[in-house]
TrEMBL record:
Cellular component terms (Gene Ontology): nucleus
Source species: Ostreococcus lucimarinus (strain CCE9901)
Gene Ontology MF, one: DNA binding
Cited InterPro entries: CenT-Element_Derived, DDE_SF_endonuclease_dom, HTH_CenpB_DNA-bd_dom, RNaseH_sf
Protein name: HTH CENPB-type domain-containing protein
Length: 870
């Protein structure tokens, strides 16, 4: 009895497609049946395996084709099973393989891409011949085209020959031929195709498409071998949490270039464009946090900005610093509203403060870190505390001069003697360039009214000659509370300083220090900091591995002030000041400066040699060996030193930390030469002992600069001290102490709970572990593998922390870390047990499958299925 759904009538269109697909199904079944009708070949095991593989593939293709036909037809069709098809195969009739093993092979082949492609191609070709009146004609045609394209991509040479013949006949143009071949993954040029047509006209063999040498595109500065070595070095450091800067990677690339071409690269060979192409090619990306301030965006209105420039112009003209421009056109953005007086440009200043911290800043832009796509990349492990911070005042005048930095620190700064950060302006009191100054300010390290007034009197005023109310100076600044307190306003009035305040929340577009200088300064400071920390971590890892103890020293004030000094150099030069004023719209006073790029210089291509690929790989490997030491690839080029360079000075620069392992290796080399080869030098024993002691002391000093064996303890504050030792104060102190002791005792008792395995008596477990080792020493094996309970005893004997309810697999993996010898013996016992007791084969069914049939009966109460044996 057939189900009611199977008796439904189909539309003519669907019936036509169904008939075609049914015929195709019968053909595939007939092919399998025909194969079964042949006699079983008398063959050896190899031929039998080949026959089984062939039958399994045919069955898998038939199953996928049947599934595809049912999807395309849209009608109910009989589902073909693997068991039914297996009964018609040669493998079953000649008993080459059991049914369950054959079905396992078929399941694996159902996931194979080639089998899926063959099944889809079979159904597509069958349905294409019978789908003229089908509603699925468009889909079938698309399947045919897609199948044909996939076949051409797998084997493009026949299609390549076909395109060449069409081009030689003039049916298509050379451009069309190149485009058609590119669709199937063949990259050729029009010149190559014309050469192929010429060869065909002389009846020569058609050259293979792989012989085309495509010279299009920009020539690479480095060969693939050197690029792969450089990418390997960069990814190594990214994975260990050390992010190299763009300058460091470019310096390594230049070193590779010199090694490959024996010449220096041109100035524009390695730049930002090459750097980002290199990152994109090797799967490396950058990450950057870029927040936006909605308050600033809303406050920077057209009225506020235009009113600010109007106030600046009126103040400058009324005090003789500038004159109105008679040819000013308000509709021309390049037109200047006022013309500055050249003689008084040095008396117009702008300034602003910025915060620099020893610890990491929160909520600000960070350094672009190199990361590997698809991997969880580590970060640098060298950190700093937040015990020190400073605010720096940056100031410049319209003449292009900048004042030296003025620092207000949270605590007394630890600045070495002779450490200087000069400005580009002359101090009238000394007649020399102004030098940086440090003072101790508030506990937040920011400018208050007193610190700002001190800066005005002691730092700004000495740089303005003949400063008085009759010969004033003009300053432009933001409306910070420290700039507008009564004391500051009184000092400005007494000294003759005219102050113009910027509109609130508009410093990001109107203040030149924020627009350019502090951006360059803080960006360079973070890059210097990242490089220093990376080199400290790299050197510390080398020392820790050498001495098997210690941790990296934190980022301290020495490195902090070095980074500040290096970052300040490029942010306050005359060119930078001029650029900042152009961005600010003050010089020239056009209110909307147009930024002009520097003209590009002519690129000079250097002479390059073209060695073969094998020599390039060998040369790249040799170059990496010269640049590396064990565990630190590329360290020598980062340190900017060779084997002959010995420099043990520590100035906080990343190069000084990168040189530390090289210096240690050089000192070890000298020490071994003194001890092992005393005949090579003419020193007596006394001089030799002096040299040994000096070398050991220098190595100890280098080690102390890189790693420390003590970890900084976190200090906790307890408010137990009182200004006056009164009776109530002493009573409160005693009560607080008793409360702490009670809490401490309660915590200690909870930790000593007998249920905690960390504090249980493990004497029995230790004895069990000793017995295991004794058995292993006496017999050479454990005789049987360890159970989960025995593994737990081993873990308790060694006090190994474990997760709650660990499985036997977790305990075996942990045993490999705890006791590798015991782990190997346990694995060997498991292997021997598996070989001794092989897996038991399944018994064949006592009932022949051919004599069993399934009978389905439909009743009002349900469906009854019964197996009937003949």
């Amino acid at each position: 009895m057939t189900p009611p759904r199977a008796r439904r009538s189909a539309s003519p269109t669907v019936s036509t497609a169904r008939k075609g697909c049914k015929k195709a199904s019968q053909r595939s079944s007939a092919s399998l049946g025909g194969a079964g009708s042949t006699t079983a070949p008398a063959c050896d095991d190899e031929d039998g395996r080949a026959q089984v593989a062939k039958d399994a593939r045919e069955v898998a293709v038939s199953l996928l084709a049947n599934k595809r036909r049912r999807e395309v037809s849209g009608q109910v069709m009989a589902k073909v099973t693997a068991t039914t098809l297996f009964l018609d195969t040669v493998s079953f009739k000649t008993e080459l393989i059991k049914q369950h093993a054959f079905l396992n092979r078929v399941r694996k082949l159902l996931k194979d891409k080639d089998v899926k492609r063959d099944a889809r191609a079979l159904v597509t070709e069958e349905c294409a011949s019978t789908s003229d009146q089908s509603e699925n004609t468009v889909h079938v045609t698309a399947d045919v085209a897609r199948t044909r394209r996939e076949e051409r991509s797998r084997n493009p040479h026949p299609f390549y020959v076909e395109v060449v013949h069409a081009l030689s006949r003039g049916d298509i143009s050379a451009t069309q031929a190149v485009h058609e071949l590119q669709q199937v993954g063949v990259r050729v040029t029009k010149a190559f195709l014309k050469r192929v047509c010429t060869a065909q006209s002389f009846r020569d063999d058609i050259p293979h498409y792989s012989e085309c040498e495509d010279g299009r595109g920009r020539p690479s500065a480095l060969s693939n071998a050197y690029l792969d070595q450089l990418a390997k070095i960069v990814k190594h450091y990214i994975r260990v949490g050390i992010s190299l800067s763009q300058e460091t990677i470019l310096s390594m690339a230049k070193n590779f270039y010199r090694d490959e071409h024996h010449a220096d690269p041109s100035d524009k060979t390695f730049g930002s464009a090459w750097f980002y192409r290199f990152l994109n090619r090797h799967g490396i990306d950058t990450s950057l946090y870029n927040p936006q301030d909605a308050l600033r965006l809303n406050a920077a209105t057209e009225h506020n900005v235009s009113n600010y420039y109007q106030r600046v112009a009126q103040t400058a003209v009324s005090n003789g610093f500038a004159t109105w421009n008679a040819d000013f056109d308000a509709n021309d953005r390049s037109s200047e509203m006022i013309i500055w007086n050249e003689e008084k440009k040095s008396r117009v200043f702008t300034f602003d403060e910025a915060k620099v911290m020893l610890a990491y800043e929160k909520g600000v832009r960070g350094v672009r870190m190199l990361v590997i796509k698809g991997e969880d990349n580590r970060r640098s492990a060298v950190t700093a505390n937040d015990a020190f911070a400073a605010s720096v005042m940056g100031c410049r005048n319209l003449a292009g001069e900048s004042l030296a930095p003025y620092f207000v620190c949270t605590t007394q700064p630890n600045v070495e003697d002779g450490f200087e950060i000069p400005g580009t302006i002359t101090d009238t009191t000394t007649g020399a360039c102004q030098q940086a100054q440090w003072i101790r300010g508030t506990k937040k390290g920011s400018f208050d009214g007193f610190a700002f007034a001190t800066w005005l009197k002691d730092h700004l005023a000495p740089c303005v000659p003949d400063l008085s109310p009759e010969n004033p100076a003009m300053v432009i600044c933001d409306g910070c509370y420290a700039h507008t307190v009564d004391e500051v306003l009184e000092i400005c009035a007494a000294m003759g300083i005219l102050m113009v305040i910027l509109p609130p929340h508009c410093t990001h577009i109107l203040q030149g220090e924020d627009l350019y200088h502090f951006g360059v300064f803080k960006g360079a400071f973070r890059v210097e900091r990242a490089e220093i920390e990376a080199m400290k971590q790299l050197a510390a890892a080398w020392f820790i591995k050498l001495f098997e103890n210690g941790v990296a020293t934190s980022f301290g004030q020495r490195e902090f002030w070095y980074a500040v000094k290096e970052a300040w150099k490029g942010a306050w030069t005359k060119q930078a000041v001029e650029k900042g004023f152009k961005m600010q719209g003050l010089v020239p006073f056009n209110r909307a400066p147009l930024w002009k790029n520097f003209p590009n210089h002519e690129r000079k291509e250097p002479q390059r040699s073209t060695p073969d690929k094998e020599s390039q790989v060998e040369a790249a490997e040799r170059c990496v060996e010269r640049m590396s030491i064990p565990g630190a690839p590329g360290l020598r080029v980062i340190a900017q030193s060779s084997d002959s360079t010995f420099d043990v000075t520590f100035d906080g620069s990343p190069e000084s930390f990168a040189r530390a392992p090289l210096n240690m290796m050089k000192l070890d080399e000298v020490y071994k030469s003194l001890v092992e080869n005393p005949s090579n030098h003419s020193m007596n024993d006394e001089h030799l002992n002096v040299m040994k002691q000096l070398i050991l002391e220098k190595q100890e000093n280098i080690t102390k600069n890189i790693v420390t064996t003590t970890r900084k303890q976190r200090s906790t504050r307890r408010h137990d001290r009182y200004d006056e030792a009164t009776a109530p104060a002493m009573a409160r102190l005693l009560a607080a102490r008793q409360k702490r002791e009670k809490t401490k005792k309660r915590t200690h008792d909870a930790a000593q709970d007998g249920c905690d395995a960390r504090f249980k008596d493990n004497t029995d477990d230790i004895q069990f572990l000793a017995a295991l080792h004794k058995r292993l020493d006496d017999n050479g094996s454990l005789e049987k593998s360890l159970t989960r309970a025995e593994l737990m005893k081993v873990m308790r004997a060694k006090r190994i922390p474990l997760p709650q309810g660990p499985t036997a697999d977790i305990l075996r993996d942990k045993l490999k870390e705890v006791d590798e010898r015991l782990y190997e013996a346990n694995i060997e016992c498991t292997r021997v047990a598996n070989a001794r007791w092989p897996k038991r084969a399944r018994h064949a069914s006592s009932v022949d499958d051919a004599n069993v049939r399934c009978e389905v009966k439909y009743h009002p109460s349900g469906v009854r299925v019964q197996l009937i044996t003949d």
